[in-house]
Amino acid sequence: MYIGICEDEAIQLEYLKKKIDNYCKQAGEVCRLESFESAEELLFKYEQSLPFDCILLDIRMGKMDGMELAAKIRVRDRQLPIIFVTGDKDAVFDGYKVGAIRYLLKPIKDEELTEALDFVKTELHGSGQHSQVTKGDYFCFNYAGEYTKIEKSLIKMIRVQGHYITICTEDMSKEYTFKETMKGIRKQLKDDRFVLASRSELVNLEYVKSISRTECILTTGEKLAVSRSCYNEFNQAFIRLYM
């Protein structure tokens, strides 16, 4: 297994590395560890996809905490197993937003770490590489007379104005506007990740950081209005995605 660790306290980091090393020896598992002292360090090194089979994140870190980092990871990789390490029991309740598979409360118990890593190992052996891309992960459309293909995970939202829709991507400088209806685009996407926040905005839930009854905040910092008629379905879809 290739395991990533993000922990900003040096003593805790070394302690966690020893725990994982002991697990690997006892399980007869060949493990490769890579550690980071901050969320920023990890994101700087891996700007696109992450190579890990699972990643352990400390929730309480410096400028960017583990929850924020996990949200950014989810934009890039929906399937990567995330294990939170925390001394704060209350923080556990926020984890459904980013689909964490386990929480390890400090001080970490050997049996709990073993159970979490055994779970990851079983999932890996059962499903193969977590990051494989299938045909369904792409959205294809005609734009400016050309056949265009884009990864669905890169689509942040789709806006409709009159008879035209605009596909907004993770890269804010790249947008695609062409003639289509919201009903038509939803039928073509066929993806539960894309849910209406309002009649004019179809949002990729992987980019949603939080939701209130009147607005949602994206991982990019943008705020979008959530209409009263769309709130219940939008909120329930968000919960289902990460439960």
Describe the structure.
This protein has 243 residues and is an alpha/beta fold. It contains six helices and 15 strands. It has helices at 10-27, 39-45, 66-76, 110-127, 182-189, 228-242; strands at 2-6, 32-36, 54-58, 82-86, 102-105, 138-143, 146-151, 155-161, 164-169, 175-179, 194-198, 201-204, 208-211, 215-218, 223-225. Strands 2-1-3-4-5 form a five-stranded parallel beta sheet, sandwiched between helices. The protein has a five-stranded antiparallel beta sheet with strand order 10-9-8-12-11. Strands 13-14-15 form a three-stranded antiparallel beta sheet, with no helix packed on it. A hairpin with a 2-residue loop joins strand 6 (138-143) and strand 7. The chain is elongated and about 60 Å long. Residues 128-136 have low confidence and may be disordered.
Helix-residue proportion: 25-40%
Query: Termini distance?
Result: 24 Å
Q: How many whole angstroms does the radius of gyration measure?
A: 20 Å
Q: For the report, how would you describe the main beta sheet? A: 5 strands, parallel
Overall mean pLDDT: 85
**Oligomeric state:** single chain
Name the poorly predicted regions.
Answer: 128-136
In spatial order, strands of the major sheet run 2-1-3-4-5
Number of H- or I-type helical stretches? 6
Structural class: alpha/beta
Percent strand equals 25-35%
Number of extended strands: 15
Give the topology string: H per helix, E per strand: EHEHEHEEHEEEEEHEEEEEH
What would the principal axes of the Cα set say about the shape? elongated
